[in-house]
Amino acid sequence: MRFQKRHIALLVYIVFLLLPIYWLFNMSIKTNTEILGAMTLFPDNPTLANYATILTDPAWYSGYINSMIYVGINVVISLLVALPAAYAFSRYNFTGDKHLFFWLLTNRMAPPAVFLLPFFQLYSSVGLFDTHIAVALAHCLFNVPLAVWILEGFMSGIPKEIDETAYIDGYSFPRFFTTIFIPLIRSGIGVTAFFCFMFSWVELLLARTLTSVNAKPIVATMTRTVSASGLDWGVLAAAGVLTIVPGALVIWFVRNYIAKGFAMGRV
Amino acid sequence: MNKITNNKAWFLVLPVFFIVAISAIIPLMTVVNYSVQDIFDPQTRFFVGTDWFRQVLEDSRLHDALIRQIVYTGSVLFIEVPLGIGIALTLPRKGWGVSACMVLLALPLLIPWNVVGTIWQIFGRADIGLGGYTLNLLGMDYNYSQNPMDAWVTVLVMDIWHWTSLIVLLCYAGLRSIPDAYYQAAKIDGASNWAVFRFIQLPKMQSVLVIGVLLRFMDSFMIYTEPFVLTGGGPGTATTFLSQFLVTVAVGQFDLGPAAAFSLIYFLIILLVCWVFYTVVMNAGKREEQ
Amino acid sequence: MTWMAWTPITAVFFTCIFLTLIGMGIWQAISPTIPRRGFLPLETTRGDRLFISLLGAAYIHLGFMVVSDASIWIASIIALVWLFLVMRWG
C-alpha cells in the first residue's frame, strides 16, 4: 500500500512537469485560428507550418545558428582554461588558493544584471559589440568558475598516486596531463561540458544586451516577437519546442551520469 | 587528501585568473567608478561622492523590490526544499524507471529561461492556456496579467516547476550513496519510517542539500528572465524583483550612477550570503574528514 | 580607458586594495600564516580576516549612510578601527 501512495505522488509531480511542455508542443502544431478560436486538448488539424516558418525564415533560423556558435565557443574556452586550473586546485596548495577559489565562486553567484552596463561599455570600446566572441567571453564569467568547480570535484576523486607514478616513469607534465589524466576524467569533462552548454544556452540577459543584429541569439529573437506582435503564438511555441530539443538530446546522452554528476559535480 | 605546497601551481591558474579578471574585476571597478559620479557622457562627469548611495538606500521602490525579493526567495526555498526531498524519497532506487525519471526530471532545467517564461505564458493565459482556462472553468477569476496576486503566484509556481528538479536530483544523488546495509539494520531494529529518514537519509543528504539551498537562494535572488517574459514585472510592480528593478534603472532610464550604486549594494548582499554558506560548507567538510 | 570613468579617489582606493593584496602575498611568503581562533566564531587565517574586515567595512559604510547624514569619513574611521580589531584579535 505504501508503495502505491509513493508512486502516485511521483506520478502527479511528473504530470505537473510535463503538462506545460505538452501544451507548448500542442500549440506549436496548431494553426493560429485554432489557438485563438477554441480550447482543444488535441489539435484538430495538426500542422507543421509553424516549424516550416522557422526553418525557412532567416530571421528565425539565424538565431539558432548564432546561439550555437557562441555556446560552442564558450564551452571550448571554459574547458580549456578550467582543466589546468582545476588540476592545480585539486593537487596543490598555493598562496591564496582558498580565496581565489571563493572569488571564482562568487562570480558564479553574482547577478549578471550587475555586470550588464560595464560589459556593454567594455565590449563596445574594444569593438566586439554584436559579435559571437563577446557573448562567449561574457558567459565565461559564470561558466569558467562553474567548470573549475565541477572538474575539481572529479579530479579530487582520482588518487594522487597515479600522478606520482607517472612522474617517476619520466612523463613530463603536459604529456601526463593529456595522455593519462584527461582520459581518466572523461566523464567529468562530459558533465562539465553539459553544464557549460546548459547555462550558456539558457542565458538571456547578457546575450541580448551584447548583440543587436549579427550575433542575435534565438532567445532574444523570441522575446522580441513577444513584445512586438504578441500574436503569432504558433510560431513562438514552435520556436520554444526547438530550443528544448538540444537540451533534451544532451540529457538523453548523459542520463546515467546525471545523478552522479549532480552529487560529484556540486552543481 | 594531503596536498603539496607548490606556488608554481599559480601558472596553471593564470588563464582562469585572467579571463575571469577581465569579465569580473574590470567591470566591478567600472561600477565603483560610476557609482560616485554623475555621468552625462565620458567627458562630462562630476564627482558626487556618496550621493547615489544615499539616494538608492532611501529609495522606496528599492525597499519594496527588496522586500518582494526576500518574500519570494523565502517562499521558493520554503516550498521547493521540502517538496524536492519528498520527491527524491519517492524515486525508485533501481530498474528502468530510474533513467526515465532522471530524464523527465532534468528536462525543465535545460529549457532556456525565457522559454520557461513563454511556456507559462501560454499555459497560464485564460483565453488560450490550459492552466488558466481550467482555473476559470472551476470558477476562479484567474488572470495573471491583471491581478497582482495571480501574477505573483504564477511566477512562484513557475519557479517551482522549473527548479524543484534540481533539489530532487541533488537529494537523490545523496540518497544513492547510502549502503543497503543501513536500511537492513534499521529494519532489524524496527525503526519507523520517520526514524530512518531522520537518522539515516537526512544526514546523508545534508551536504548536497546545503549546496542545493545555496544555489536556489542565489538563482532565485537574481531571477530576471522568467518574470520578465511572463509578466514584465507587472501588473504594476507586483513581480518586479531586484534584477528587474536594476535593469529598468540601468538600461531603461540609463541612470548610470544610481544603477551602479544599487549594483554594488546588490553585490555586497550576494557576497555576504555566499561567504556564509561557503564557510559553513567548508567547515562541515572539514569535520567530516576528521 | 575613458569609458571606465576613473576618478582620483576610486583610483587611490583600488591601488590601496591592490597593494594590500600584494603585501599580503609577500607577508605570506616571508612568514606563512597559522590558522587561529580569535573573537570571531571560526578559525581564520590572515587572508580570511582581511576578507572579513573588508566586507565588514563595506557594510559599516552602508549602515552608516542609512542611519546618519553626517560625513562618510566618520564611517571610514569606524571601519579602520574595525579592520584593525579583526586583523589583530579576530
UniProtKB/TrEMBL annotation, chain A:
Alphabetical keyword list: Cell membrane, Membrane, Transmembrane, Transmembrane helix, Transport
Major localisation: membrane
Cellular localisation: Cell membrane
A Pfam family matched in the record: BPD_transp_1
Transmembrane segments: 7-25, 68-89, 101-120, 132-155, 176-202, 233-254
The organism's place on the tree of life at top rank: Bacteria
SUPFAM superfamilies referenced in this protein's UniProt entry, alphabetically: MetI-like (SSF161098)
GO CC terms in record: plasma membrane
Membrane topology per record: Multi-pass membrane protein
InterPro entries in alphabetical order: BP-dep_ABC_trans_perm, MetI-like, MetI-like_sf
GO BP: transmembrane transport
Domain annotation ABC transmembrane type-1: ranges: 64-254
Family in the record: Belongs to the binding-protein-dependent transport system permease family.
Protein name in UniProt: Sugar ABC transporter permease
Protein's organism: Thalassospira alkalitolerans
Automatic annotation (TrEMBL), chain B:
UniProt entry keywords in alphabetical sequence: Membrane, Transmembrane, Transmembrane helix, Transport
Transmembrane residue ranges: 12-36, 70-89, 96-113, 151-175, 227-247, 259-281
Source taxon at top rank: Bacteria
Entry-linked SUPFAM superfamilies: MetI-like (SSF161098)
Single GO cellular component term: plasma membrane
Chief site of localization: membrane
Membrane topology of the entry: Multi-pass membrane protein
InterPro entries reported for this sequence: MetI-like, MetI-like_sf, Sugar_ABC_transporter
Pfam families according to UniProt: BPD_transp_1 (PF00528)
Subcellular localization: Cell membrane
One GO biological process term: transmembrane transport
Residue ranges occupied by any ABC transmembrane type-1 domain in the UniProt entry: 66-277
UniProt protein name: ABC transporter permease
Species annotation: Thalassospira alkalitolerans
Phylogenetic placement of the source organism: Bacteria, Pseudomonadati, Pseudomonadota, Alphaproteobacteria, Rhodospirillales
Automatic annotation (TrEMBL), chain C:
Keywords of the record: Membrane, Transmembrane, Transmembrane helix
Transmembrane region(s): 6-30, 72-89
Keyword Membrane: yes
InterPro entries linked: DUF2160_TM
Keyword Transmembrane helix: yes
Pfam families xref list: DUF2160
Protein name: Membrane protein
Upper lineage: Bacteria, Pseudomonadati, Pseudomonadota, Alphaproteobacteria, Rhodospirillales
